[in-house]
Each structure stands twice: as structure tokens, then as C-alpha cells.
């Protein structure tokens, strides 16, 4: 009998279990990537659109608890390096959407589909203990045929200034550069974070065809209208491939019902604390 408190999301994103290879000591599974491999060069193994992972073991738990790796902010990279079967794949070069899919799949393979989390209600502030079924996640729909295969670039005309923008999907390496820049800015100024302009500067590949980084930064910092910035960020968020990690949340206290994103807190890889 199913648990009435288990919150369903969508459909499974892990395909049939892969046969255990002779050189593999542990069972593996193949997941479908949200990007379908569409935006990787043909020579990249991720262009196949799938990723084979092995089940986590106590060895990977050691990685997750390594203070040194946590302090260096590379603990998840090391985890992925350990469980990805194809060792030519570099986790820091995976698109964020595919990396998210790999992390959800790793958690499922290690501890199962049920994930207990605490969600704070946005209306009344009450903490709700919920159970989320990770096995019913799926990749968001995306019209890949609109874009050339093997190219990580997208065009968008800003609706108010009519400036033509070309942008890309970010990978973990890009996120690392953004974090370093923001850390540097925080040491210079405690009042302004520059989160939006820094992130957009890394997203954008060209402005009206100009690919010079100084020109892009100048445009973002000095010329980009707020309403165009909002439109661009909404466009990027609404059109990029990703895992649908949302679930139907209902507050037991005030009855608020809405979609929430699955949190990846401390308990994500440690379901029993």
C-alpha cells in the first residue's frame, strides 16, 4: 500500500538498469540527460545524451564527509568523478542542468526514491516535514530542433532596447568563476553584491555581434536596462533544459498549496542524519 504522505512529482528519468560490465564491481544505471547531449561537441561523450553512473558505496560517503573537499567546494565534483563510469567526462564541464540530473540520480541510486525534507511555508512561516518521491521526476520539455546541434549558443533580442544578445548555458566551471568574482567583490564592497551583473556577464557571449569580454561587461554594467535584464533572465530560465524538481506542496498549518522546488540541503545525501 502506498504511503499517503508521499508527494509525487512527475515520471522517472532513469531508464532501464544497464548490465554490469565485467570491469564494474557494482551495479550501474543509465540516466537521460536534460540536455539530450544536444549542446555538446560531437566528440564529447556527453553528446550521446545519456550518462552511466555506478551506485554509491561507503567510499563515496567518505568523499561526502571530507572536510578538506568541502572547504575547497569540490566535494560534489569528486563525488561525480567517482561514480561516473566514463572517466573521460569532466564533471566541471557538464552543463548545470545535466549536473543536476546526475546529482538527483546519485541520491536515488544510493538511498532510494523517498526523500524527507523540511519546507518552510511562504505564507505562515510554519515548517512542514514532507516526503518527496525523487523517482517521479522527469526532464522538462524542450524544443531541441530549434537549435543547431553541437553548439551551446542561443539568441535573444532584448524587448525594449532591441539589442541582440547571444548567450550560453553555464557549466560548473563557469559557476566557479562567478563565485570567485563575487567573493572578490564582497571584499571590496559590503553593500553591493553584483550578483545579477556578474552572472549575466558570464551568460552572454556577444552583444550585437561583439564578442569582446570588455564590451560585454561594459554593456551589462552600464547600459543594460532593468526591464531588459529581467526579460533576459526570465527567457533564460524559461527556455533552458533542466530537471523538473518541483512538487506539489500543501502546508498542514494554513493550507497554502503551490509548487515548490526540491531542496538539496544537508539531508539530501544523508537521509538518516
Task: Explain this structure.
Strands 1-6-5 form a 3-stranded mixed sheet, with no helix packed on it. The protein has a 3-stranded antiparallel sheet with strand order 2-3-4, covered by helices on one side. Helix 5 (172-188) packs antiparallel against helix 6 (195-203) and helix 6 packs antiparallel against helix 7 (213-223). The chain has 2 domains: 6-142 and 244-268, no CATH class; 146-239. The radius of gyration is 20 Å and the shape is globular. The chain is built from 8 helices and 13 strands. The chain is 32% helix and 21% strand. It is of the alpha+beta class. A hairpin with a 6-residue loop joins strand 5 and strand 6 (127-133).
Keywords:
2 domains, 273 residues, single chain, three-stranded mixed beta sheet, globular, disordered N terminus, 8 helices, 13 strands, alpha+beta
From the spread of the alpha carbons, the general shape counts as globular
Class based on secondary structure composition and strand pairing: alpha+beta
The major beta sheet can be summarized as:
3 strands, mixed
Instruction: Evaluate the radius of gyration.
Output: 20 Å
Extended strand count: 13
User: What strand line-up does the widest sheet have?
Assistant: 1-6-5
Number of helices: 8
Give start-end ranges of low-pLDDT stretches. Answer: 1-14, 16-22
Proportion of beta-strand residues = 15-25%
Average pLDDT, rounded to a whole number, is 88
Topology as a string of helices (H) and strands (E) = EEEEHHHHEEEEEHHEHHEEE
Distance between the termini: 26 Å
Q: In percent, how helical is the residue content?
A: 25-40%
Oligomer description: single chain
Number of domains: 2
Amino acid at each position: 500500500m502506498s504511503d499517503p504522505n508521499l508527494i509525487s512529482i512527475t515520471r522517472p528519468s532513469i531508464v532501464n538498469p544497464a548490465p554490469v560490465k565485467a570491469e564494474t564491481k557494482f551495479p550501474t544505471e543509465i540516466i537521460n540527460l536534460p540536455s539530450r547531449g544536444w549542446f555538446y561537441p560531437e566528440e564529447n561523450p556527453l553528446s550521446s545524451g545519456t550518462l552511466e553512473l555506478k551506485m554509491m558505496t561507503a567510499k563515496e560517503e567518505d568523499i561526502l564527509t571530507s572536510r578538506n573537499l568541502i572547504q575547497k567546494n569540490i566535494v560534489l565534483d569528486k563525488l561525480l568523478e567517482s561514480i561516473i563510469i566514463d572517466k573521460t567526462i569532466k564533471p566541471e564541464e557538464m552543463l548545470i542542468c545535466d549536473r543536476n540530473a546526475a546529482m538527483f540520480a546519485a541520491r536515488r541510486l544510493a538511498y532510494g526514491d523517498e526523500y524527507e525534507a523540511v519546507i518552510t511555508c511562504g505564507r505562515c512561516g510554519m515548517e512542514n516535514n514532507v516526503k518527496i518521491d525523487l523517482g517521479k521526476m522527469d526532464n522538462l520539455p524542450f524544443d531541441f530542433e530549434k537549435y543547431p546541434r553541437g553548439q551551446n549558443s542561443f539568441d535573444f533580442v532584448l524587448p525594449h532596447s532591441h539589442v541582440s544578445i547571444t548567450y550560453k548555458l553555464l557549466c560548473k566551471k563557469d559557476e566557479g568563476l562567478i563565485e570567485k568574482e563575487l567573493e572578490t567583490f564582497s571584499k571590496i564592497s559590503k553593500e553591493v553584491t553584483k550578483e545579477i551583473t556578474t552572472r549575466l556577464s558570464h551568460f552572454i557571449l556577444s552583444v550585437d555581434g561583439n564578442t569582446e569580454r570588455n564590451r560585454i561587461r561594459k554593456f551589462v554594467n552600464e547600459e543594460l536596462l532593468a526591464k531588459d535584464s529581467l526579460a533576459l533572465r526570465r527567457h533564460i530560465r524559461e527556455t533552458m533544459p533542466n530537471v523538473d524538481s518541483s512538487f506539489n506542496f500543501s502546508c498542514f498549518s494554513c493550507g497554502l498549496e503551490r509548487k515548490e522546488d526540491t531542496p538539496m540541503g544537508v539531508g539530501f545525501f544523508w537521509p538518516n542524519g
